[in-house]
Amino acid sequence: MSLIETTNSAYSYPLLIKNLLLAPLANRPDQVITYKGALRFTYRQFHERVARLASALLGLGVKQGDVVAVMDWDSHRYLEAYFAIPMIGAVLHTVNIRLSPEQLLFTMDHAEDKVLLLNADFLPLIEAIRGRLDTITHTILLTDGAAAPASTVKFDGEYEVLLAAAEPLKEFPDFDENTRATTFYTTGTTGLPKGVAFSHRQLVLHTLVFTGLLSANPAQGNFHREDVYMPITPMFHVHAWGIPYIATYLGVKQVYPGRYIPSVLSALVRDEGVTFSHCVPTVLSMILRDQGSASYDLSKWKVVIGGSALPKALAKEALARGIDIFAGYGMSETCPVLAVSQLTSADLEKGEGDQIDLRVRAGIPSGMVHLKVIDPQGNDQPWDEKSPGEIVVRAPWLTQAYLKDHTNSEKLWAGGWLHTQDVAVRCADGAIRITDRLKDVIKVAGEWLSSLELEDFLALHPAVAEVAVIGKPDAQWGEVPFALVVLKPGQEATDKTLIGHLKGYIEKGMVPREATLLKVVFGATVPKTSVGKTDKQAIRKQLLV
């Protein structure tokens, strides 16, 4: 029996993605969404295009529960798919365009994709597996106005032509808010990709809570209606961290850059007045090293760094350019945001070094996020900033299971808490500081040595452009730290100079003395995963042979 009295005529208001559009359409219908600074649409036009796309998909026979896949660069089309596909009760599959053909085949078959929205740039990927894609029945071509390329793939039409011919859907249906809205696949370095799914309810709750979190801090890093937003996290990766939904809900000006080219990204920041973005460290590093943007004023740009730890050296470089840089924390399975490292007014009175220490932390968990740091026996670790443990979490938007994968789902949710596999310490103010991944902790004579902390301090050497640290098996110590180092052009360094550099931090008590066991190899690049993270599994295969 319900504890709340209702009438037969009451409207229950399900938490559906369509309702995120109500406020911007009513209050900011003439605000602009632009693609590359060339195409421009108002929110009113955007909604009409969403309604046309929905109608076109229904015309192809898409029904509730069907999966519609998208392979595109970051574009207005992708944003339209973020809304139109789940709003008709179908499931949006954001396909990782950087997977190998075999991985693509696995994810698309596993998801049971029915319709594919395909950018012409990715035709070679699909042509390589076309004969083995058993579930795709319709394919829509996406182009930037160019003529359709010659292809063996059969298309049902070009995106803009289909939208122009479709009658806008007059009303989007209500259905259960727990209906699956999105699916994508994790990019782990071992095994097959794992399917992660989220419901309308989860995505709406994530949007509402983190709109409040980002906008509530008055001093630094806030995201508000007068901002200009540009994602630099691929839209196939965890809904671009969910921030396109937040930006649309707020009705801000949005800038979609297409393919990531450093000179294009920095020019869009300048020309479109971009004030809020998010990316992994490597992308921001490429932008800052673009010579063409060296004279650009970036002092109004707020950038959230996630996906990998924010290196102190990169934070210092960004602050020197006037960028308001800070870290956020989450993972694919958490929708993704759990915490953000925003600074208070008092924090901003501190010196640069102290500010950087705060900005690079994973941050303070949001409201409705119940987060703990536990030891191997499951006991809570003290908030002393020195007792490491695994982060486990509960929140209303966490994925409930991996798609069709009971075994890994049980491991993910062992004991009723989502296990992140991230090792962290808890600070006195409740903030978390990530020290490593469980699989990347270096165990030296039974003591844990953080690979991330070593990377951070090595990156502060003026000759180091990039660094990754792993554990190398050792007969005497169990493991010793092993660093792959990329030097800046024209710079020189040896293993002895880098170990000497670390000794300065050891003497200050900032780095354990076991760091002197470091072994160093110099290389041209640090391998990356498909979403721009350091690929330590590839480094192990490459170097530990």
What's the gist of this structure?
With 545 residues, the protein is an alpha/beta fold. Helices cover 30% and strands 23% of the residues.
Question: What keywords describe this structure?
Answer:
5-stranded mixed sheet, 545 residues, 17 helices, 30% helix, 23% strand, Rossmann fold, alpha/beta
Written overview of the protein:
By secondary structure, the protein is α/β, with parallel strands linked by helices. The chain has 3 domains: 17-21 and 40-198, Rossmann fold; 260-438, ANL, N-terminal domain (Rossmann fold, 3-Layer(aba) Sandwich), CATH 3.40.50; 441-543, GMP Synthetase, Chain A, domain 3 (2-Layer Sandwich), CATH 3.30.300.30. The chain is built from 17 helices and 25 strands. The strands form 6 sheets. A 7-stranded mixed beta sheet has the order 7-6-5-3-4-8-9. Strand 21 (442-444) and strand 22 (447-449) form a beta hairpin. Helix 2 (43-59) crosses helix 6 (159-165) and helix 10 (262-272) crosses helix 11. It is globular and about 70 Å long. The N and C termini lie far apart (64 Å). 45% of the residues are buried. The model has no long low-confidence stretch (mean pLDDT 93).
